[in-house]
Hints:
- This protein has one domain: 3-Layer(aba) Sandwich (Protocatechuate 4,5-dioxygenase, Chain B), CATH 3.40.830.
- Helices cover 31% and strands 19% of the residues.
- The chain has helices at 19-27, 68-71, 81-90, 105-114, 133-143, 175-189, 193-197, 204-209, 217-225, and strands at residues 3-7, 36-46, 49-51, 95-97, 122-128, 151-157, 232-235, 239-240, 244-245, 248-251.
- Strand 8 and strand 9 (244-245) form a beta hairpin.
Amino acid sequence: MPALFVGHGSPMNAVEENRFVEEWKALGNKIPRPAAILSVSAHWFTEGTRVTDAQAPRTVYDMYGFPDALYKIVYPAKGAPEFAHLAKSMISRKVTIDNSWGHDHGTWSVLHRIYPDADIPVFQLSVDRGISPHEHYQIGRELSALQEQGVLIFGSGNVVHNLARVNWSMDGGYPWAEEFDAYIKEHVMARQNENVINYQQAGASAAMSVPTPDHFSPLLYVLGASENAERVTVFNDACTLGALSMTSYLFQ
């Protein structure tokens, strides 16, 4: 299986039709059908590393103030307990089974577009707030063998994510957002992963684009899992709302 990082952007992408969503919909026909999906979502940002092993995870509505249509979406994909336990055994750090969570909107807002039938099992791995970028990457490396068993490793976040600077009437990105997004794309495509892991070296644009690591870190898990990928495809290559990047990567 390939590995996939999607810039998920606004939760409204779950109900709106736009150029970004069209690319998501096309993914289901571009990659092999997974046996299961391991989602690393920016919206499960925890103390310690956690994984869900529930048979039937709930749909989590972890966003506020949006139209009712968004809260009516249910993504009833089953869990994948066996793969969850296998993933736990692969990670050298302590991992806690935690079913207080479920499929959050970083997961379901994208997957219900790619796999609308919700007929592929999904389990989530949290983003550990207490570890370094290199440790996120290392966890991805440790999990890479799951791909040989048909598991799609899916990271959902945003390369640029600064909600304090979002401009809802702006189509593109601020110069610092465009600069940082281009910096990351250059090094991802060149497979210069150390420069992505050490993203702070980009300077002021990094500080503005990644004020907190929750949305950037899922990319590091995916990079680690795809260290030996032969091909990288970039899609949805754009910033929007001033301070969000939708840029996404498929590693095959």
